């Protein structure tokens, strides 16, 4: 029974040596508990924040303790009346092949519905983040211009598609020509920009958004966002969902000051954490599943095989090696 622990608090870019692999006994469930076998493990950019000691909206991981993330697991045996052997569940679980749980924070997953892995992406946290961020926080309206950074990733690819469902002009920013092509062909974006090949982001955004930008869904921050801000329309809204371009920074880079522009253009910027909106999760999943069934929503996943590859899959998020949701199949 393998377990992956946090060995060091990474400084800058995390490395495989920041993780420890150990072999432990397979646990036996007590009364009220169930034994779980991990099947699909989600690796997410926010885990980087939990590896540092800095105070945040979620507790840091402890050194020499297992890391945890969203996992889909199979119930191997159960001493808990609410779960049966053979059930599938999802929840925040440890990076262990086998573990016991009291079942309290677990949600049953239907193995005959969507593919099991979809519960970690399009019908899980990242799909829900896209939906709530855009509809509740950004209040996107029909016909507006929406710009999305991290556009070919798990959250971004869904954000852009919801924008198209709402008949918006949608511009996506991603890190390769292949991803930009995918935005337009698979996900229906109107325009795509490869930021790695673009020196002047401001000009590129202006060209791709002839009517200016009404809503900016930001997953990355940094110089990409500097370029978008210049193109915001009056009363524009910025949804600050993530800032992956800065998660490994040891010193925060400075950028242009935006305060005068915020005033002149009456812009709003709002950070949000999806976990604060649990009351909307049911509605979000129902709507996402509905769009999937109607063929209005596509999704992609990058599935890495093997429990031992969880740390590398996590590191690869920072190199843009994923298209859509990065998932490890145990
Ligand atoms: P993604 O699937 O988007 O994977 C991360 C992507 O980020 C990579 O594929 C890469 O794509 C891009 N990236 C990596 N490094 C950089 C960089 N230096 N500059 C620009 N882009 C970079 O991950 P998620 O969809 O899971 O998450 C996207 C964002 O949303 C993250 O910032 C995450 O923290 C945030 N998030 C926030 C939530 C909330 O509640 N607020 C909930 C869920 C996610 P590319 O090839 O295009 O560079």
Automatic annotation (TrEMBL):
<dbReference type="InterPro" id="IPR013149">
    <property type="entry name" value="ADH-like_C"/>
</dbReference>
<dbReference type="InterPro" id="IPR011032">
    <property type="entry name" value="GroES-like_sf"/>
</dbReference>
<dbReference type="Pfam" id="PF00107">
    <property type="entry name" value="ADH_zinc_N"/>
</dbReference>
<protein>
    <submittedName>
        <fullName>NADP-dependent oxidoreductase</fullName>
    </submittedName>
</protein>
<dbReference type="InterPro" id="IPR041694">
    <property type="entry name" value="ADH_N_2"/>
</dbReference>
<dbReference type="InterPro" id="IPR045010">
    <property type="entry name" value="MDR_fam"/>
</dbReference>
<dbReference type="GO" id="GO:0016628">
    <property type="term" value="F:oxidoreductase activity, acting on the CH-CH group of donors, NAD or NADP as acceptor"/>
</dbReference>
<dbReference type="InterPro" id="IPR036291">
    <property type="entry name" value="NAD(P)-bd_dom_sf"/>
</dbReference>
<dbReference type="Pfam" id="PF16884">
    <property type="entry name" value="ADH_N_2"/>
</dbReference>
<dbReference type="InterPro" id="IPR020843">
    <property type="entry name" value="ER"/>
</dbReference>
<feature type="domain" description="Enoyl reductase (ER)">
    <location>
        <begin position="14"/>
        <end position="328"/>
    </location>
</feature>
<keyword id="KW-0560">Oxidoreductase</keyword>
């Amino acid at each position: 029974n393998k377990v992956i622990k946090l060995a060091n608090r990474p400084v800058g870019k995390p490395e495989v040596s920041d993780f420890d692999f150990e072999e432990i006994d397979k646990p036996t469930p007590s009364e009220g508990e169930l034994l779980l076998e991990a099947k699909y493990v989600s690796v997410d950019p926010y885990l980087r924040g939990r590896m540092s000691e800095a105070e945040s909206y979620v507790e840091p991981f402890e050194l020499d303790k297992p890391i945890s993330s969203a996992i889909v697991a199979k119930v191997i045996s159960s001493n808990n009346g609410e779960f049966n052997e053979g059930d599938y569940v999802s929840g925040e679980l440890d990076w262990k092949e086998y573990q016991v749980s009291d079942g309290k924070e677990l949600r049953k997953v239907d193995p005959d519905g969507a593919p099991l892995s979809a519960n970690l992406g399009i019908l899980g946290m990242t799909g829900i983040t896209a939906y709530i961020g855009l509809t509740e926080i950004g209040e996107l309206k029909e016909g507006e211009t929406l710009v999305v950074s991290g556009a070919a990733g798990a959250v971004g690819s869904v954000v852009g598609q919801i924008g198209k469902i709402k008949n918006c002009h949608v511009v996506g920013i991603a890190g390769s020509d292949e991803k930009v092509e995918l935005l337009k062909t698979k996900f229906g974006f109107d325009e795509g920009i490869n930021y790695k090949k673009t020196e002047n982001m401001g000009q590129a955004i202006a060209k791709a958004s002839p009517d200016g930008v009404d809503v900016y869904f930001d997953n990355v921050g940094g110089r990409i966002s500097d370029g978008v801000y210049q193109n915001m329309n009056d009363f524009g809204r910025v949804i600050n969902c993530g800032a992956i371009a800065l998660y490994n920074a040891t010193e925060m880079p400075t950028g242009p000051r935006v305060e005068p522009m915020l005033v002149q253009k009456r812009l709003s910027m709002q950070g949000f954490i999806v976990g604060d909106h649990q009351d909307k999760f049911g509605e979000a999943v129902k709507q996402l599943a509905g769009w999937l069934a109607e063929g209005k929503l596509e999704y992609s996943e990058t599935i890495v095989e093997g429990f031992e590859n969880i740390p590398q899959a996590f590191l690869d998020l920072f190199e843009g090696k994923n298209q859509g949701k990065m998932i490890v199949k145990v």
